[in-house]
Amino acid sequence: MKVSTTWLSEYIDLKGYTGEELAEQLTAHGIEVDSVLSTDELYGQESSLQETKDNILDLDLTPNRSDCLSIIGTAYEMGAVLGRYMDSNSLNRYNVSSYNYSPLNSFSVNNEAEQECKCYALALIENVQIGPSPLWIQHRLSALGVAPVNNVCDFANYIMLECGQPINIYDADQFSGAQIQIRFADEENIMTADGLKRTVDSTALLISDGRKPASIAGIANAADYEISPGTHRILIESAHFSGSVTRKTSRKLGLRNEKTVRFEKEINLEMILPALLRVSELIVAASPGAKLSGVSHWQYAPIEHKTIKVSQEKINRYLGTEISGEQIEAILKYLHFPFEIPENSVYLISVPKRRGILARRSISSRKSPDCTAMSIFLCLWYRALQHQEN
């Protein structure tokens, strides 16, 4: 995962640190940084591709740190490392209550696979003009290794990189009816956007218009539904697709991309609607005359929130440290992990959904603590070491 320090700084204050120093801090705290490149090195000092002077950190993420597969996720981690809070104004970009929108009445959804698609959201934008995206979007995508395509696709990729939620976009006029089906395949042939005919078996999840498949869910669009220069109505999809189903299908087809990587790791269900609203806002703002006609959101399973119960004594015994209660509370706040203290020196920690997939068992279990627990332990440990050194 490549991250831009300029982009990161919209969400967390990085003043006082060079790119190399930030890389050292992350690596010391368990997030390996393979390299640091300046945009001068990427493009040359006089290149017009530069937005501003920037540094690109190439993160080597372990499987349990999929929460850092986004700018915002990395910013949360950076805040915990540096002891700085996230910028609330920037986070409000993903606050659903800050958006005004009407329900989408022109399309309905028939979900035949509610366990494999627990949440599905759509937005319809009309009068879109397809063309190049604004230069600032092209700059940011190029710096992170994503080739610009057009204004619609580029904003979708931008949002995925920023918040971690994959966004898919269809040519709305290619849908034969008003109902979208989410179903498993039936040994069907699909011509994907790369021009190859692919056969999908009954383990593959499809998005269909009732006549034929519009996409292999979370993996690739059918060629007929792709955005073209003549597209004027777009249907934007933001959804949850099962990580195991996505992984199995993408491997069978030999199709793996930035979207599948994120679905395979299980995405944050709470980000599905906010990401859809933000990408819709950006597309409308960048396309004169474009209009958001409606947004709809279907939740097929409740969002479960995990909690971890751990005592100050257990933390210190496990780490071999003497962290005070005040230190523990400060670090949890930097991590943005809500917590309560139901009894003296015992913490009931709520795991945010962006990390919830890792919260599989309690720290108090006799077995080894899970990855989220280890993350808390390590953050507490490193912060304690810094405190002791100071």
Automatic annotation (TrEMBL):
Top-level taxon of origin: Bacteria
InterPro entries reported for this sequence: B3/B4_tRNA-bd, DNA-bd_dom_put_sf, Phe-tRNA-ligase_IIc_bsu, Phe-tRNA_synthase-like_B3/B4, tRNA_synthase_B5-dom
A single MF term (Gene Ontology): ATP binding
Signal peptide as annotated in the record: none
PROSITE patterns noted in UniProt: B5
GO biological process: phenylalanyl-tRNA aminoacylation
Pfam families named in the record: B3_4 (PF03483), B5 (PF03484)
GO cellular component: phenylalanine-tRNA ligase complex
Gene3D superfamilies referenced in this protein's UniProt entry, alphabetically: 3.30.56.10, Phenylalanyl-trna Synthetase, Chain B, domain 3 (3.50.40.10)
Protein name in UniProt: B5 domain-containing protein
Domain B5: 303-390
Lineage: Bacteria, Bacillati, Bacillota, Bacilli, Bacillales
